[in-house]
């Protein structure tokens, strides 16, 4: 009886060892095999991609490119010249003479600032440099403003500049009564991409001085 029991015990142990060895072999076979799932996992984790870098860098680069594409609006073209703007202002004022005229831009909209003097009265106009229409006007009384009408009118100075400085763009012209011994016109022009200041006699239209603006 004892021998029979011992015999069956040995058979059981052998069976357990065989089953264990078979399971180990099967497990090795499964994990050593290049299955589609394993390839998929390797593809996901082995690619040299930095997710954080892609998200941040691409986001900011895209944003910067969008900002570069948005450009500031271009200034409107000047379609009305100095003489035409002066005529519009003088026609509305009816009397007086032009002492100051300047081409200026406000929010890319070009306009002329014009001042007309008559005795103690100063009339100010803003003329649209695109349409030629009067944007606004104002009249002021100045006790210390009286100024004598010069021999050379503003239109004469504009003609002189056009002849003497070919292709130059006039920026502003202002009648100056404080110059020693005579009235003069202070003129600013842009020629060859350089800004130049010129002083012209209001008596005989001679050029007193000219220099590049610092």
From TrEMBL:
One Pfam family in the UniProt entry: PepSY
Every PepSY domain range: 82-137
InterPro entries: PepSY
Entry protein name: PepSY domain-containing protein
Organism name: Streptococcus zalophi
């Amino acid at each position: 009886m004892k021998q029979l029991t011992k015999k069956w015990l040995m058979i059981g142990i052998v069976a357990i060892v065989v089953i264990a060895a078979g399971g180990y072999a099967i497990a090795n076979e499964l994990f050593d095999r290049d299955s589609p799932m394993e390839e998929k996992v390797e593809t996901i984790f082995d690619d040299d991609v930095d997710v954080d870098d892609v998200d941040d860098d691409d986001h900011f680069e895209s944003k910067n490119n969008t900002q570069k594409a948005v450009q500031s609006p271009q200034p409107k073209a000047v379609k009305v010249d100095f003489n035409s703007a002066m005529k519009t202002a003088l026609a509305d004022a009816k009397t007086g003479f032009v002492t100051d005229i300047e081409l200026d831009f406000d929010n890319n909209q070009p306009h002329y600032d014009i001042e007309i003097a008559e005795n103690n009265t100063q009339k100010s106009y803003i003329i649209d440099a695109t349409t030629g229409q009067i944007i606004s006007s104002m009249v002021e009384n100045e006790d210390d403003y009286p100024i004598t009408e010069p021999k050379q009118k503003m239109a004469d100075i504009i003609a002189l500049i056009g002849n003497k400085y070919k292709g130059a763009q006039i920026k502003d012209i202002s009648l100056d009564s404080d110059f020693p011994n005579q009235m003069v016109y202070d003129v600013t022009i842009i020629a060859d991409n350089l800004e130049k200041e010129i002083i012209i006699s209001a008596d005989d239209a001679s050029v007193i001085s000219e220099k590049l603006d610092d």
